[in-house]
Amino acid sequence: MNCIIIEDQPPAQRILKKYIEDIGSLELKGIFSDAIQAMEFLKTEPIGLIFLDIHLPKLSGIDFLKTMANPPSIILTTAFSEYALESYEFDVVDYLLKPFSFQRFVKAVSKALERKEIESHNNYKTASVSPRKEIYIKSGYEHIKIYIDAIQYITSDSHYTEIVTDAKKYLSTEPLRFWLENLPSNQFQQIHKSHIINAAAIEKIMSNQVCLLGDIKLPIGRAYKEEFMNTILK
Question: What is the CATH superfamily name and number for domain 134-233?
Answer without folding.
Answer: LytTr DNA-binding domain (2.40.50.1020)
